Amino acid sequence: MELDFVKLHGLGNDFVFMDDFSRDINLTKEQVALLCDRHFGIGADGVILVRPSERSECAAYMHYINSDGTLAQMCGNGVRCFAKYLVDRGYVQASDGQFVADTLAGPKPISFEVDDRDKMTRATVDMGHPILEPSDVPVNVPANATSADGAAFAKDVAITSPWGTFAFTCASMGNPHAICFIDDFAQLSDELFTNANDKSLATLDLNKIGAYYESHEAFPEKTNVEFAHVRSGAIDMRVFERGCGETLACGTGACATNVAAALTGRSGRENDIVLRGGTLHILWDENDHVMMTGPAVESFQGTVEV
Ligand SMILES: N[C@@H](CCC[C@H](N)C(=O)O)C(=O)O
Question: What EC number(s) has UniProt assigned to this enzyme (predicted)?
Answer without folding.
Answer: 5.1.1.7
